Amino acid sequence: MNKKRNMLKHLQKLLNVAIIFGIMLFIVDIVLFFVSFNAALIMLLVTVVYFALFLGSYVVEKKNVLQQFVDFATKYGLVQKQMLKEHSMPYAMVDETGRIVWKNDAFMKAMAIEADYSKSITTVIPMITKETLSKMEDYFEFISETEKRVFKVEIRRFNFEEYTENTKEEEGVVFNGFLYGVHLTDETELHGYIKALDETQLVGGLIYIDNYDEVIETVDPVKQSMVIALIDRRINKYLESADAIVKKIEKDKYYVIFKKKYLSKLQEDKFSLIHEVHTVNTGSDIEVTISIGIGFNPDGYVATMEYSRMAMDLALGRGGDQAVVKEPNKISYYGGSAKTVEKSNRVKARVKAHALREIIESKENVVIMGHKIADVDSFGAAIGIYKACEALGKPAHIVINEITSSVRSMIDLFLNHEGYPDDMFFTSVDAAEYVDNNTAVVVVDVNKPSYCECAEILSQTKTVVVLDHHRQGEEAISNPVLYYVEAYASSTCEMVSEIIQYFDESIKLKNYEADCLYAGIMIDTNNFTSKAGVRTFEAAAYLRRCGADVMRVRKMFKNDMDSYKAKAEVIRNAELFNGIAISVCDGDRLDSPTIVAAQSANELLNIVGVRASIVITRHNDVIYISARSMDEVNVSRLMERLGGGGHGNTAGAQLEHCSIEEAVARIKNLIEESIREGEL
Predict the structure, then answer these.
(1) What are the Cα distances from residue 167, in Å, to 69, 164, 174, 179, 464?
(2) 173 Cβ partners below 8 Å, 6+ apart?
(3) Residue environment code for 24-63, b if the CB has 16+ CB neighbours within 10 A, otherwise e
(4) Phi, psi (deg, nearest 5) at residue 273
(5) End-to-end CA distance of the chain
(6) Which residues share a beta bridge with 256?
(7) Is 625 helix (H, G, I), strand (E, B) or coil?
(8) What is the DSSP string of 268-303?
(9) Fewer CB within 10 Å: C terminus or N terminus of the chain?
(10) Longest C-alpha distance within the chain, in Å?
């Protein structure tokens, strides 16, 4: 309609020009009367003939011209409509509710619908809803995938009022809404090529035999080559299904390359190679365990191998016997359910001790911090590092914000003693003002920055040391100069006790300092009944020689009556859910509800039929979860799904913006999901 009116306007302009030209002839004729009468008569005759011919032509041809315009517009519209209907590109019009009001043949074929189909477009393209249309601007596009086809969907909004405003007065049309044009582009073939190209990209991997030295030491020399050959065969045969290239780069290390399309198959299989190597007969009680680090980065092969190395570091930092897959946007874990094996060789501890000494000697001062709501292991390890700094004559400070009942008795030993400076203990505010590039920050008993007492100081210096015994997760302290995380260790106090022995011969622990370290080991091993290995008892023996006293330590951890009653209430109200005891600790009247929750979780394991225990409590508007087990359930895997972590038998997590009821529901859903996936 608008095009038709524009054409009529152009015609009217031509008529106006003809009339103006005639008037100009008449004016010239008048002028000629004053110059030459005969010439004026001739000009007048010409003017009269011009107007006669013009008016005659206008009257005679007006109807024909208008009719031709109308015929052209009508035929043009019909041709345009027919072309759109038969166009190879699928196209449809929908109203504001999403109802299909018009579609062409290609759209009907693409969506497999009939000509009389007028339902909501949501029934064929679920992503287009009434709410989507109401919120969109003038243009919107997205990719829609069906079982066999992939379409690029483009939606354009048309204000129908603009197209009807010229006909309202004539036809009484009233419509002030929107229509939406939906245009489909079949990109099935293009996406097929993209997918094929993506699947042919190379994935890099590393495979390490975790306990190679321990296995070889226990195998008869004659059979050693046979055991290694069996391990090689298992690895190569498993990776044949991925059409992988396997290259042995060291006696216990393998380098792997395969196409990305096989990665999903290995993930679906959950890297069963981890369990297959356990069946290799070594002739002893030691099982062969391996760690697998797989990396993929579309930026290039160098970046891919860097990812595989990072994945391997994660696998080893979490105790080995597992596979870690690192991609640009996610990290996936498989295996890791086996109990970590203690390394009898203490060479690593000696190397780390010497490295730590060099770091501390190169800095002017040291700040030591553990995790929030410090426990005995965190505090004891901090005291051990403090003594190491003291032996080198370096000023050191321990960051602690909240003094819980579990560490209050130990802190009092140092606060009331003349042999220690008044600024031995810092708050987060003090530490943030104190730390600079000449400060070494030593983090103990935690490797997640969000759990640290003062995460801000990690970015205020380039010298950060991490000493921890918890399995490493996705969140980790970035770029530490020394990273010593041993998941097999019973406690950080055990690790620090070993470091002190190699650090400096002049270190002499006082009896109450030794008590702090001994207490950390005793608490984290639940009185030497959990995760207590040979090196644990060697560390305890060293501390005993330094003057640690078992009875003195036990007196430090006597519970008050309210805490004991709360613990009994937790046990009384425990619910057994699929073999896992779940209970809630009411911490409103307790000084340290997290400590009581952890103690209650340990006590619940003594009940027949309880495979694992989970106790939930609230403290400072944060939900704290303590999880314990006795080798039957890997509680660390459960807590990692909640953003926490720990060991297979001892783990925990923190939840914010969550109620107790919601936390219990999430844990139950998580347990059921783990059972369905075969992890429990």
Answers:
(1) 18, 5, 9, 18, 76
(2) 164, 167
(3) eeeeebeebeeeeeeebeebbeebeeebeeeeeeeeeeee
(4) -55, -30
(5) 71
(6) 205, 246
(7) strand
(8) HTT-THHHHGGG---SSSPPP-EEEEEE--TT-HHH
(9) N
(10) 145
Comparing CA positions, the residue from 491, 474, 569, 479 lying closest to residue 526 is 491
CA distance 44 to 38: 10
Per-residue exposure over 137-157, b if at least 16 CB sit within 10 Å of its own CB, e if not: eeebeeebeeeeebbebebee
- Rounded Cα distance, 268 and 147, in Å: 21
Beta-carbon contacts of residue 674 (< 8 Å; ≥ 6 apart): 637, 638, 680
Q: What is the DSSP string of 322-390?
A: EEEEEETTEEEEEE--SPPPPP---HHHHHHHHHHHHHHHTSSEEEEE-BSS--HHHHHHHHHHHHHHH
Contact 626, 604 (CB under 8 A): no
Structure tokens at 490: 């019973």
Classify 402 as helix, strand or coil. coil
pLDDT tens digits for range 302-318: 999 999 998 998 888 77
Q: Residue 341: what are its φ and ψ, rounded to 5°?
A: -100, 130
Residue 12, both tokens: 């009217």
DSSP 543-602: HHHTT--HHHHHHHTPPPHHHHHHHHHHHHT-EEETTEEEEEE--TT-S-HHHHHHHHHH
Please give the DSSP secondary-structure letter assigned to residue 120. Answer: B
Q: Which two tokens stand for residue 273?
A: 């190679």
Angle at 423 between CA 420 and CA 428, to 5 degrees: 135
> Using one digit for the tens of pLDDT, what is the confidence trace for 17-72?
777 777 877 787 787 777 777 777 777 787 787 777 777 776 666 656 655 655 65
Selected residue with higher pLDDT from 680 and 381:
381
pTM for this entry: 0.63
Look at residue 328 and give its three-state secondary structure.
Answer: coil
Residue 611 DSSP symbol:
S
Tokens of 492: 């950080």
Query: Among 491, 559, 545, which Cα is nearest to 519's?
Result: 491
Q: How far apart are CA 128 and CA 215, in angstroms?
A: 60
In this structure, are residues 521 and 535 in contact, taking their beta carbons and an 8 Å threshold?
no
Nearest-CA neighbor of 521 among 348, 399, 387, 378? 378
> Taking a C-beta distance cutoff of 8 angstroms, is the pair 396, 390 a contact?
yes
* 518 vs 547: CA distance, rounded Å: 10
Q: Cα separation of 357 and 440, whole Å?
A: 11
Which residue matches tokens 């997290």?
594
**H or E element at residue 314:** helix 301-317
Tell me the C-alpha distance between 669 and 583, whole Å.
Answer: 15
Question: Phi and psi of 165, rounded to 5°?
Answer: -65, -30
Could you tell me which of 499, 490, 226, 159 has the C-alpha nearest to residue 353? 499
Contact 215, 288 (CB under 8 A): yes
pLDDT at 458: 93
Q: Token match 């060293």: residue?
A: 542
Say whether 254 sits in a helix, a strand or coil: strand
